[in-house]
Amino acid sequence: MAEPSKKEENKVVDEGIDVGISRLTEEKIQSVINSVIDSETGARLKAYVETCIHCGLCSEACHYYLSHDNDPHYSPVGKVKQTIWEMVRKKGRVSPEFIRRAAIIAHTECNLCKRCAQYCPFGIDIAYLISVVRRIIHKLGVTPLYLQDTAHSHSVTMNQMWVKGDEWPDTLQWQEEEAQAEIPNLRIPLEKEGADVMYSVIAPEPKFQAQLIYQAAVIMHVAGVNWTMPASVGWDNSDMAMFSGDNELMGRLKRTHFETAARLKVKKIVMGECGHAFRSVYDMGNRWLGWSMPPFTIVHAIEFYHDLIKEGRIKIAKKYKPPITLHDPCNVVRGGGLHEKARYVAHAICEKVIEMHPNREHNYCCCAGGGVINTGPPFKMTRIKGNRVKAEQLFGAKTKGAEVLVAPCHNCHSGLHDIVHHYEIGLDIKFFGDIIYEVMEKPE
Amino acid sequence: MVDSRSWDWETGEKNVSLDSWKKEYRWVEEPYASPDGEKIAAIVNVDEGEFTVCVNGKVWGETVFDKIWHLRFSPDGRLTALVSEMGEWTMAVNGEAWENKFGYIWEPRFSIDGTAIAAAVQQDMRYGMVLNGKPWEQTFANMTYFALSPDGRHTAGAVQVEDVDSGEIHKFQKGSFTAALDGNPWDMRFVNVWNLAISTDGEHLAAEVRLNLYDYTIAVDGVPWESRYATVWEPLFNPVTGTVVAPVREKGTWALAENGKILWDRRFVQIWHQMFSPDGSRLAAIVAPKYGRWTVAVDGVPWPATFATLVTDATFSPDGRRIAALAKDGETFRVVVDGNPWTDAWDMAWKPVFSPDGKDVAAKVEKKGRYTYTVNNRVWSRSCDIAWDPVFSPDGTHLMLRTVEAGNYVRRIVPVSDIVG
Amino acid sequence: MHSFYNFVSGPLAWVAFILFFGGSIYRIVSMLKLVAEKERFIFSYMSWRYSLRSIIHWIIPFATVNWRRQPVLTVVTFAFHLCLLATPIFLLSHVVLWDEAFSISWWTLPDAVADIMTIIVILGAVYFLVRRVTQPEVKFVTSVSDFVILAIVAAPFITGFLAYHQWLSYPLVMCLHVLAGDIMLAAIPFTRLSHMLFSPFTRAYMGSEFGKVRHARDW
Ligand code: HEM
Ligand code: HEM
Ligand code: SF4
Ligand code: SF4
């Protein structure tokens, strides 16, 4: 076994990883690695491994690398070297201790943000390579506890937070009632077949942030959108199985989501301000199921608000006063090109927008995405220390006068919250929906 | 099956004015038309926190409920909704609430002939099914998937029989779920149980099961098939022979398996929504013959025509000889019959309906918010604000078209030849 | 010595060229076959427009964010690669050989220019070597093979340069030069030098995914 001092250093207690590792044998590791590589990968893995010229030019793309004073262990290519390269080179003959390190790297030291793909001259997709590692980790049963638990919740309830079948419609009806105190004839139409829009959210909304559903309902009502929400499974668009390497479960979740839209005969799926869910519905889950593009037009909240404002369906009574700065979430900006629309919305609803740098496709990841925040408390500091550069970037915007940070993504929201708090940056964090709800014209 | 012979197939047109409803109530929700077309109903709000249902202009019963949702006509024409009174929930049928009340009730189901009504219920955080007002005797910590047998005599659910707290991943992986028929759980435990099917005779229950994080199969009456798969989709009983058929995934592609043996020799990028012809002799499914292309395969042979975005709502004709489905390319839908797409593309289309002899096909369609009908690739001359699925007369010569036009509910009996020409 | 020269410039050169062209075609064809077999979906995302958009940005110095961030490296690598490709092809002494052997010839570089270009390649190789041992992020991912391929690339240029200037024993150097040239050609398809073959494909794929699906720039 490895020298104790080194082991001590990266000892994090995670029951998912630790118990998983204790059950591994070298034979098992070898057979799993080889079966994943042989039967689930192809030209991409081969070309990426063989083409990489070991130039290190991807390093400065990665916020972990930058935040750890350019420690090469955290560079994109460095992480690949410590994981999949070794597995390929040794034909799967690696130790349980190696797998432990690989699990930590793949699950907590890479957000699959794909910024590095924009920096590698060959466009090598490091995030894909790390996903292959996660797939192997899944097959070995070494996924971090919190993430695995979330995947279990998905498998049982088809949502991320163990929300039971009755709790979901009950919550919507409760929010409808709350909102009726403000707008008496407001409705959250459940199971309305033939509506134009199915509105889907992630499970933390009904669980902890029901006011977001309330706000969305007000926006829908004021804009006169013909919308519905399902009362069955399929309402949750999130997908941690996509990040835990459980592709079969990812496919099941996305099938449920799409077929709910098909059953409700809607034309579009409008989704709340979540980035990873967008990635799963728009880019990943559909592919696993055989759809080259999703079977329904997917409209992320940013685009939805953009269209509503542009078409004059919601009007701004009085722009938001405090200067804001805008965080571009990787999954909808690098993954969906919504950066200009986000700016349109920001300028339409706020008096002052202060850009952080870098921005748009080149923005730094929040370090929560890619399932990393879902590895939970054991790795909270990994996220925070791994994104000092984000704190510096935010501090730059703050120095120029920003008081509020708009992050139109749930993961980013939570991740940035930890960073703002830890580095004492002093920015309020909001969703676009929060601000729109506050500044829009409402009946009366 | 519902017998439509006693319905009025003579009167050309019947009207119910809906405009007055709006004046009478604070708001009127989406209307629903009865299967025989004689009634039109909507949930209406009387006052703050007071709801009732308006049927042809009259309230459906004495009781005013605190909340009403999920208003639907059963296939036999009874008007049902989920209702709440004093913080308790139940089902109301034609305005009468079931005697049993629950903490919550959702996902109602009807048997094919409509005589049975089932739903999932929660009482004191325990879960079970209710059938015609009568809940299961045994209840469970959680219930996630539900089924009502085609004859309406049996209900089933995927139930949790072992308490697992969130975070107990290793306990969870030992298996805490099983399936229950009429409240009686199987002995074996599974990591997950999904998508249940009850056989035609109501005796057998099949479900998708996950044995550990990686091995999936189909279990029938609590016994898993011997074969293991990367994953599986919903099982289906052959209505005649009683064998179970399910799509299964191996080595990255899909096949259909019957009782654990591969059925079609051809594999697909995707297979789902398999369906038997009514006599059980033919088997069809929605498939992706290659990545990003969709169609219907009949007995393993895909239609030559494929579609890019979606194929859905496939259905056999009553004689089992023809199949109709909807295909989406880009943003528009078409009706496709036996692999031939019809000419017109629509913003939305609904499940095609065959005439009893299988010769004619009709479907409700919509473009730019206006609804109409298409029959045998011809389009009805009118467009409406709302429409319901077309219904063929028992002799197949007429169609009942239920629509809303200019604030009026209209029930029309139209000769098929008027549309087909 | 003479017979050795005949061997390396005769049969061995044939072998080298066959390995280079044959090997390149084989590598590309088998990679595409692998895509067709296992990752067929990739084809549905490929777009000429977005492939070219991406490739063009990356083959122009300073046209991408990362090239701008690394000005020295950008200048060196573009000069290095340009000279690396152009010098052997347009070198008078090489074209003369083609002419003698097959009676085909084309435009050539003035010797003085070719000489400077050779120096550029050699200096480029030195730069990469220094970078590899001094920059921690490069050093961390460096293996012996990286030095070997750098040596394989530098060798024909160093020996060619020595031969041209007739330093050291000309016949020996000439033999070594031709041998080094043969080795480099043969090595391209079968080592990481194959980035010459695959980089257009990896770039095109990423460009297509970013352009067509992600609606974002990949540079
Ligand atoms: C890809 C492989 C090769 C490369 C990169 C290469 C490169 C060079 C370079 C850079 C020079 C010197 C130019 C200068 O400094 O002005 C040179 C000279 C020369 N090379 Fe090559 N060479 C290669 C292969 C070959 C082969 C295979 C042969 C013969 C069969 C050959 C024959 C010569 C000759 C005859 C000279 C001229 C030497 C002189 O001027 O006396 N080279 N080569
Ligand atoms: C025409 C297609 C080619 C392209 C697009 C290309 C591109 C690149 C890029 C982007 C790098 C990494 C950046 C850097 O470190 O400079 C690189 C490095 C390199 N390339 Fe190429 N290259 C090509 C052809 C070749 C050929 C034909 C050779 C030699 C046979 C070659 C030899 C090298 C070497 C030796 C390095 C330096 C690696 C190091 O840092 O040690 N390249 N190339
Ligand atoms: S975190 Fe982002 S930039 Fe860093 S290696 Fe992962 S995908 Fe690349
Ligand atoms: S930039 Fe690309 S080629 Fe260079 S080390 Fe990173 S992944 Fe490899």
Separation, N- and C-terminal Cα atoms of chain A? 71 Å
Number of domains of chain A: 3
What is the structural class of chain A?
mainly alpha
CATH architecture level-2 label of chain C: Up-down Bundle
What's the total number of strands of chain C? 0
- If you compute it from the alpha carbons, what radius of gyration of chain C comes out, rounded to the nearest whole angstrom? 20 Å
SSE pattern of chain A = HHHHHHHHHHEHHEHHEHEHEHHEHHEHEH
Q: SSE order of chain C in H/E notation? A: HHHHHHHHHHHH
Q: Might you state the CATH topology name of chain C?
A: Fumarate Reductase Cytochrome B subunit
Low-confidence segments of chain C, given as residue ranges, are none
Total helices of chain A: the number is 22
Shape of chain C: globular
The number of distinct helices of chain C, counting runs of at least 4 residues, comes to 12
Sheet with the most strands: spatial strand order of chain A: 2-1-3-4
Which percent band covers the strand fraction of chain A?
5-15%
Low-confidence parts of chain A = 1-9
Mean pLDDT of chain C: 95
Can you describe what's shown?
The complex is a heterotrimer of chains A (444), B (421) and C (219). Chain A is built from 22 helices and 8 strands. Chain A has 444 residues and is mainly alpha-helical. Chain A has 3 domains: 3-143, Fumarate Reductase Iron-sulfur Protein, Chain B, domain 2 (Orthogonal Bundle), CATH 1.10.1060; 156-310, 3-Layer(aba) Sandwich (Rossmann fold), CATH 3.40.50; 324-439, no CATH class. Chain A is globular, with a radius of gyration of 22 Å. Mean pLDDT of chain A is 95; it is low at 1-9. In chain B, strands 1, 41, 42, 43 and 44 form a 5-stranded antiparallel β-sheet that branches. In chain B, strands 2, 3, 4, 5 and 6 form a 5-stranded antiparallel β-sheet that branches. In chain B, a hairpin with a 5-residue loop joins strand 7 and strand 8 (79-85). Chain B starts with 12 loop residues before the first strand and ends with a helix. The model of chain B has no long low-confidence stretch (mean pLDDT 96). Chain C has one domain (12-213): Fumarate Reductase Cytochrome B subunit. In chain C, helix 4 packs across helix 12 (195-214) and helix 8 (111-134) runs antiparallel to helix 10. The radius of gyration of chain C is 20 Å and the shape is globular. Chain C starts with a helix and ends in a 5-residue tail after the last helix. The chains are: A mainly alpha (444), B mainly beta (421), C mainly alpha (219). Chains in contact: A-B, A-C, B-C. At the A-B interface, helix 2, helix 9, helix 10 and helix 14 of A face strand 7, strand 11 and helix 2 of B. One protoporphyrin IX containing FE sits between chains C (77, 81, 84, 128, 132, 146, 149-150, 153, 184, 188, 193, 195-196, 199) and A (53, 55, 57, 121). One protoporphyrin IX containing FE is lined by residues 9, 13, 87-88, 91, 93-94, 97, 111, 114-115, 118, 156-157, 160-161, 163-164, 177-178, 181-182, 184-185 of chain C.
